[in-house]
């Protein structure tokens, strides 16, 4: 049976929520993120702001230079998470096969959904309408026979898009697509492909599986498949969380280890709190350090048999920090991540880490 996959992508999600909740922001170039007066970055931009070339991950100061009239809003992640849950509840009215990718996008497998005579296009249209009616927000939808093409389709007619790539059209669609627009091909891979003379899907399809594996390793089979419109990845409704982390960028570089440890304490507390809420334990703690010159390093520690509280985390974090050059080079960003997650034992309230 040919699969029917929908990719739903909320349009300028964070900014759209802010414009919905504050009518004065509607029609304005809204930037959600950090302060342009410091080292904040853009988390999301309204379509009015995007016309000025503003995009996510751009330094907020640069965004302000490009659009002096931009309205900067601090993120309200609790509100965005609540809206995301409402939207995902709409998805599950149609299928249990929902794979969230983030707060604002998800894959749906509606192959066996009987609603709207089983038409994936009509189901996608109905979902878009329900999202608009129940949340006041706008979504774009891509429909195809696999995840790769559904994702590509959702980008075609934004905002408020609805685009279908039929099975008979998939290979031709990919052949004409620039590799830089392939979901899953980043800038470094795009540059590497250009060096090899690969500019479009048609160029990519000329390469053998063996040649792509030799050039791109384990990603080779994926590129070989998508160049032919083939992607067998299933929609996975239960995505396993692999890590829990928290990080922060400082308004001014930190040069003293004591100041860095003071800044790391609330990050460690946040990680522990998130693990506790999810009843998870972890095997490994990783410290992330970004220096003044933007070089970035990580240091990790794994050990078995210890029960850990905040002070224990901080003791290990100090040891990890001392294994970096933070005592010589000022630091602009610090982060802590717990990984190797597994369900927490129920023999007490304290988080158990197997170090």
What does this structure look like?
This protein is an alpha+beta fold and 355 residues long. It has three domains: 165 residues, Reverse transcriptase/Diguanylate cyclase domain (Alpha-Beta Plaits), CATH 3.30.70.270; 57 residues, Orthogonal Bundle (DNA polymerase, domain 1); 111 residues, DNA polymerase, Y-family, little finger domain (Dna Ligase, domain 1), CATH 3.30.1490. Helices cover 36% and strands 23% of the residues. The strands form five sheets. Strands 5-6-1-7-8 form a five-stranded mixed β-sheet. A four-stranded antiparallel β-sheet has the order 9-14-11-12. A hairpin with an 8-residue loop joins strand 2 and strand 3. It starts with a strand and ends with a strand. The C terminus is likely disordered.
Structural class: alpha+beta
**What series of H and E elements makes up the topology?**
EHEEHHEHEEHEHEHHHHHEHEEEEHEEE
Into which percent range does the helicity of residues fall? 25-40%
Mean pLDDT: 90
CATH H-level homologous superfamily name of the largest domain: Reverse transcriptase/Diguanylate cyclase domain
The spatial strand order of the largest sheet comes to 5-6-1-7-8
Q: Which regions are unreliable across 5 or more consecutive residues at pLDDT < 50?
A: 345-355
Quantity of strands, as a count: 16
Please tell me the CATH architecture of the largest domain by its name. 2-Layer Sandwich
- CATH fold annotation of the largest domain: Alpha-Beta Plaits
Percentage of residues in DSSP E strands: 15-25%
How big is the Rg?
23 Å
CATH class of the largest domain: Alpha Beta
Q: Which of globular, elongated, flat, extended, rod-shaped describes the shape?
A: globular
Let me know the largest β-sheet.
Answer: 5 strands, mixed
Annotation field: number of helices: 13
Distance between the termini: 47 Å
Number of separate structural domains: 3
